[in-house]
Structure formats: C-alpha cells, structure tokens
Design a protein that fits this description.
Number of domains: 2
Structural class: alpha/beta
Number of helices: 15
Distance between the termini: 13 Å
CATH topology of the largest domain: Rossmann fold
Order of helices and strands: EHEHEHEHEHEEHEHHEHEHEHEHEHHH
CATH superfamily of the largest domain: Glycogen Phosphorylase B
CATH architecture of the largest domain: 3-Layer(aba) Sandwich
Helix content: 40-55%
Oligomer: single chain
Amino acid sequence: MKLKIIISGGGTGGHIFPAIAIANAIMEKYPQTEILFVGAEGKMEMEKVPAAGYKIIGLPIMGLQRRLTLENLKFPFKLLASMLKANKIIKEFKPDVVVGVGGYASGPLLKAATKKGVPALIQEQNSYPGITNKLLASKVQKICVAYQEMERFFPKEKIIITGNPVRQDIKNIAEKRVSGLEHFGLQADKKTVLIIGGSLGARTINESIELGLEIFAKNNVQILWQTGSWFADRAAKATAKFNENGIKTLPFITKMDYAYAVADVVISRAGASSISELCLVAKPAIFVPSPNVAEDHQTKNAMALVNKNAAILVKDIDANQNLVQETLLLIKDVAKQVLLKENITKMAFNNSASIIADEVVKLGGRN
C-alpha cells in the first residue's frame, strides 16, 4: 500500500523550496508515494509547485495586516472558508501523514488533519518560530528544526535538529565557477559580489546598491544583482553605464548554483533558506534582515550566525549609509573572508531533506 502525504504551506520561496526538497527526497526513496500540496490561493506556491511536478490545491486563506486595514475584515471569513476546504481535502485525500512548512495555508490544513487524528510533522525553518507553528506544536508528533535551543518554543521530546532543506544543485559549487563566470559574462580576475534580496527582491538592499554603483565600479568590483521583477527596469537603467564594469542585473536568478560559485561575498536578506544555503556553500555573507516579518525573526536568524562570527549584519535602517562600505571592507579583507567561511561552514547541515523525509515516512507507519 502506498503512502499518501499532504505538504502544506508556502507564501515565499523560503517556505516553498524546502517543501519541494522534502517532496523530492520522499519520492526518491519511496517512489510509490502520492503527494499533494496545499497552498494559499494567489501565492507563489500555486506556480512553483506545479512547475516542480506536483499537484497543489489552494485555500482562500490570507494573513492579518499588522496595521488597521479593511482587508483585515475579510480575515475571519477567509479563515472559516479555509478550514472548511481543509476538512474537505483531508476527508477526500485521506492522508497517512501531513507536513507543515509554514506560511498561511499550513495552519488550517494541520489543524484540520490533527483534529481527525492524522499524524503531523512541522518543519520550522527559523530560529524564532511564527505564531502558527507555536500554536500547532502541541498537536503534532514531530518538529524538525534548523537551530539549537528550540526547546524554548517547542516540547523538547518532539524536536529533531535536521537543518533546512536546500536545493540539491548548490552542492559542490567550486567546480562550477568557470561555467558560472561564462554564464553571467563576468571576469575571472575581478572580485564579485552577489546580491540576493529573496525571491521577490528587497527594497532597502536594492536602493542601497543603486546608490553605491559608482563606488563598486571605481573599486573594480563586479556585481551580480537579483533585483526582483518590480525593481528590474529601474536597476537596468541605473546600471546601463556600468555594464562594461561587470555590473549585471537580473529580475530572478534561476542558476543559483552558478551565482554562488562566482561570488566572493554575498549580500542577502536573512530568511531561513538563504542562510541555510549560504552555510552549505560557505560564502562570506552580509545579512540585511527584513524588518517587515513576524517577530523580527530575520534579525534573530542572522544573529545566530553573527554571534558565532560566521556573518556580518547591517540593519535595514542603516543599509543606505553603511551597506556598500561594509561590503568593500569585506571584499578587501581576505583574512576576514576566510574566518567567516570557516565559521559558517560549521553551521551547515547536509542531507536535511533526506532526514526529514525519513521522519515523515516513519510517522506514516511505513518504516
């Protein structure tokens, strides 16, 4: 008898890519498994999950805005509709186990499943969990985490430290450097800064880089800049006169293995997936945590590395003034780069998706 699994959650690449990595690991080990994704209507997962070859059903769930807004009046109705639809999905699909990866859809689906006695597992990516996962912790059987000391938030006996699943193509990137330089049209004899503001881009990082383009060009530093689609035209105009200096912009980088391979220093938001990838590829990193996330969890994620001298932090509010200068200081300080590489490597987890896949299957009673 084949195993039936629901994986729920999404909203950002930080939730979606780990979810797909877990699904891929399950299918690789147990090809007879049937996997269904449940996401939020209109969110990124509704496009990315089918592209990865999996079926997904959307719930009409939305998040609460932190400021007073008319949109918030819709929340209770959308939550109720989502709970009804989640119950229907559980009843019709009859999963052996459900997995929550965070994001709007995770709450209603896991609540509906656990209420019916379906075994459940949470994959918590951040060092400071969101309210949904904290509320669900008492209902699920296992909680897979990426950071130490998570017993502050979850029952100790349920916790397994697995790290965060990452895309498999970013392993062994050293051998991809030459291909990466060719792919992006960059020069081998120049230092390269990779800028990734998350899958949707990051306003503060983008504006800070825009202000510093001339400084990078004067210092003979190449830039590979993922802008997000909304900033792409503006970035292209701003960089037009610097193209010969090796300043490249892309709305979205699909070949992240090549991007990491060519980077000497990386500027990034401090989402859990980005941090996990940077630990694995061992790149000197400057984090600019987003201030627009629940419980300021990106700052907490970044500080877990900064406190171990494994990364540098620039506050969002200080980025316009300090980010470019901090980047240049790091690019010129090879000893500091080596130290950051050594320390960030110690925080890497290998085979996270495979470990989580085994835990999911165990819960389903097939292993």
